[in-house]
Amino acid sequence: MKKRDFLKLALFGIKTIIFKEKKPILGTIILTDYCNLHCKHCAVNNISKVMNPYENIVEEMNNFYNKGIRILFFCGGETLLWEHSGKNIRDLIKKAREIGFYIVNIVTNGTIDLDIKEADVIFLSIDGDRQAHNSIRGDTFDTIMNNVSKANNSNICIYMAINKLNYKTIPEVCSLAKENPNINSISFNFHTPYEGTEYLSLTSDEKRETIHTIKNMMKEDTPIFNLPCALDEYLKNNWERPCCQCIVSENNKRYICGRCVEIEGLCNECGYLFAVEFSMLFDGNVKAIFQMLKTYLKYV
After folding, report:
1. How far apart (Å, rounded) are the C-alpha atoms in residues 23 and 31?
2. How confident is the model over 209-219, as pLDDT tens digits?
3. What is the pLDDT of residues 55-103, one digit of tens each?
4. Predicted model pTM
5. How far is Cα 256 from Cα 240, in angstroms, rounded to an integer?
6. Strand partners of residue 159
7. Contact 278, 246 (CB under 8 A)
8. Do residues 89 and 106 touch, judged by C-beta distance below 8 A?
9. Which residues pair with 84 in a beta bridge?
10. Rg of the Cα trace of the chain?
């Protein structure tokens, strides 16, 4: 990220805190809900199987930019399956740069080529060691690691969704992030229990155990993307939500913060640690601001 862009983001944060503004800065565009996997914790894949048209996505990117959004995520379904009119994810990233976004990230399950240097960060879903990951996502762990080995020019961040089946494997995944030369960091979320996936949620005691484990990994210099103070806030479960600084767009429909806002009661069980972090940042939490500066400048 360019220094001037970082300063502009910092100015946005200062204005948001001082004037209590609710303007968005981060936008996510769901390119398609089509996915080549059927993961146990996912309830939003392969519903419509629509590849959203390139022209519509570009129009939404322009709309986002005009609203002041400068951090852009492309998601799925499986993001890298998206194609339309001869265009693919690289074309979208290039167009986002032309429009003027400061940071352009993608989220992927890693079963497709990961050598995508155009993205600022590739958030790669790995949900545990080989056994735990495969029990959740199917027999894909080795395929993903093979793709990682060939992605020499990518900024890859493991994106682990913590649940009942994998929370004991966090040390192993942290070791993977620390030791693999093509993986630069790891980011955690907790399972958000969409209907039919409630059994994967951790108990309060398991969450506390998990937070303790992650903090110990941080002390061992594991390259963890999350903010330590947000882990404690997550356990308290009283942060402000939905996070007005984030918008998700899917097939011409927008959601403040995320798609779960329309499901009664689900917002209170949110496991997205980015939402906790943004809520703290734009509430003026000094510790969160300091940790954000240290963390984001290191890994983005």
Report:
1. 23
2. 999 999 999 99
3. 999 999 999 999 999 999 999 999 999 999 999 999 999 999 999 999 9
4. 0.95
5. 13
6. 187
7. yes
8. yes
9. 87
10. 18
